[in-house]
Amino acid sequence: MEIGGFQKVTLLDFPTKIACIVFTKGCNFKCPYCQNGSLVLNTEDGDLIDLEEIFSYLEKRKKVLDGVCISGGEPLIQKNIKELLIKIKSMGFLVKLDTNGTNPITLKELIDLKLVDYVAMDIKNSFSKYDITVGGVNPFVENIKKSIEILEETNIPHEFRTTIVKELHTINDILEIGKMFCPKTKYYLQNYEESDNVIKKGMHGFSSLELEKIKNSLKKIMPNLIIRGI
């Protein structure tokens, strides 16, 4: 298990819960706007965090933390992800999983074993633009469709979310994404913000006014659309 980052407290990432975040290294996508570029690209560089250090922290915070967010990178490419979640659950914590949906078999296994309590799945773009949005690598579209189906059918608490970038996304793309899942499902748009850790610099987010226009244009068709940050 390759752990590249650990955030000890978050009030934002696990809905209604106080949690910490474990960041796994490596990803099968190379989205140019990814905020965790060092975890995605430099898989051979940098020190890994010892799992025992994390477990020791969790043991001391049992009365403070509600859960653990497993993020990345892409956690489901890790060979020992199931064993990690078994250990975390055995300590009494809830688990939120962030995933890009490219490994539906493992996703379903973890859900069936009741090792995850909440799933946030990134929908990168409309399917016709997935390849360019994920950096020109295999977009695994059929796997993503299957993961959406699994989340909708198992009734595990979940959300879908898209980081929107001016160079990559249009209102029509967002409409196409909305057709992928039930209209009642929570769907979040997250505006892109450039940082030192993004894979490709020079891309742009939308202004607050543009975000409001997007929300107003789509609210009748997508009533559960939420734009984070405005």
N-to-C terminal Cα separation, in Å?
37 Å
Q: Taking all residues together, what is the mean pLDDT?
A: 93
CATH class: Alpha Beta
CATH superfamily: Aldolase class I
Largest beta sheet: strand ordering? 1-2-3-4-5-6-7-8
Q: What's the total number of strands? A: 8
How much helix is in the residues?
25-40%
Beta fraction:
15-25%
Supply the key terms.
230 residues; alpha/beta; TIM Barrel; 8-stranded mixed beta sheet
Structure description:
It is a single chain. The chain has helices at 37-41, 51-60, 81-90, 104-112, 130-133, 141-154, 171-178, 208-218; strands at 3-10, 19-24, 67-71, 94-99, 118-122, 158-164, 187-191, 225-228. It is α/β, with parallel strands linked by helices. The protein has a single domain (3-228), classed as Aldolase class I (TIM Barrel), CATH 3.20.20. An eight-stranded mixed β-sheet has the order 1-2-3-4-5-6-7-8, covered by helices on one side. Helix 8 links the parallel strand 7 and strand 8 (225-228). Helix 4 runs parallel beside helix 6. The longest helix has 14 residues, at 141-154. The chain is globular and about 50 Å long. The model has no long low-confidence stretch (mean pLDDT 93).
Short note summarizing the structure:
An eight-stranded mixed β-sheet has the order 1-2-3-4-5-6-7-8, with helices on one face. It is globular. It has 230 residues and is of the alpha/beta class.
How are the elements arranged and paired?
Blueprint: E1 3-10, E2 19-24, H1 37-41, H2 51-60, E3 67-71, H3 81-90, E4 94-99, H4 104-112, E5 118-122, H5 130-133, H6 141-154, E6 158-164, H7 171-178, E7 187-191, H8 208-218, E8 225-228
Parallel strand pairs: 2-3, 3-4, 4-5, 5-6, 6-7, 7-8
Antiparallel strand pairs: 1-2
Helix pairs in contact: 4-6
